[in-house]
Amino acid sequence: MPENIFENNTVHLLGKIVKAPKFNHELYGESFYSFELEVQRLSKCFDNIPVLVSDRLIDIQLLEVGKIIEVKGQFRSYNSADSNSRKLMLMAFVREIEITELTEIEEPSSSFNEIFLNGFICKKPMYRKTPFGREICDLLIAVNRQYYKSDYIPCICWGRNAKYAEQMSQGNNIKIWGRVQSRGYQKKHENGEVSNLRAYEVSVSKMEFVQEAPVKETVEEKTET
Predict the structure, then answer these.
(1) Bigger pLDDT: 44 or 63?
(2) CATH 2.40.50.140, applies to 114-220
(3) Which of 178, 224, 142 is nearest to 13 (CA)?
(4) Which of 25, 65, 90, 131 has its CB surrounded by the most CB atoms within 10 Å?
């Protein structure tokens, strides 16, 4: 288990609020609100990332649509049950938040969206190639949290990282650096209706296999698109 439970899952985001906060849940008298943050990539495309914040950290009314804010915290998973199925929900859980004085972001930076995870592979890595021959590997990482809980974070590796991840096994302890990304997809239901949905995952730029021996292997690759 990682030595410091607070440092094995860190996320840093800077972006624009695009969906106003709404009440999410209450825990021991503390109210939590969720909203959506639009974070710009180097390519000037955007990732829309759900964020969860306590009203004890900031006056929720200050979190207006259009405000550019900086948040630091953890990327967490939650089980959401509806009438038909259970779904894994992913959100940036805020520990620090600041409303900036910026009105617009002129030049995107990789530092606007950074995540680090130290966890364990909980499913066999799924390696594949696109029709254009690009190598991809999907990982599901379990990251320990306080009170004997874990967050389950889907990650996607590209190129050399994908080939490297394919060699790993369930239960391996690895470290991952990258960014949180969102992507849209469609789901067709039994009644023929189609829903437009959004998935969240970590796009891996660097990964390290944690071994008991002092020798560690590292591969790094630019994946910003």
Answers:
(1) 63
(2) yes
(3) 178
(4) 90
Query: Token match 């067709």: residue?
Result: 188
Any residues with CB less than 8 A from the CB of 153 and at least 6 apart, and which? 75, 77, 90, 117, 119, 140, 141, 142, 143, 201, 202
pLDDT at 196: 81
Q: Average per-residue pLDDT in the chain?
A: 88
Q: Write the DSSP string, 101-158.
A: S-S---S--GGGEEEEEEEEE-S--EEEE-TT--EEEEEEEEEEEGGGEEEEEEEEEE
Rounded to an integer, what distance in angstroms lies between the CA atom of residue 225 and that of residue 43? 6
- Identity at 130, one-letter amino acid code: T
Q: Give the pLDDT band (50/70/90) at residue 217.
A: low
Radius of gyration of the chain (CA): 18
Query: What span, in angstroms and rounded, lies between the C-alpha atoms of 64 and 18?
Result: 9
Level-2 CATH architecture, domain 9-108? Beta Barrel (2.40)
Residues of the chain with CATH 2.40.50.140: 9-108, 114-220
Q: Measuring CA to CA, which residue among 59, 57, 88, 62 is closest to residue 75?
A: 88
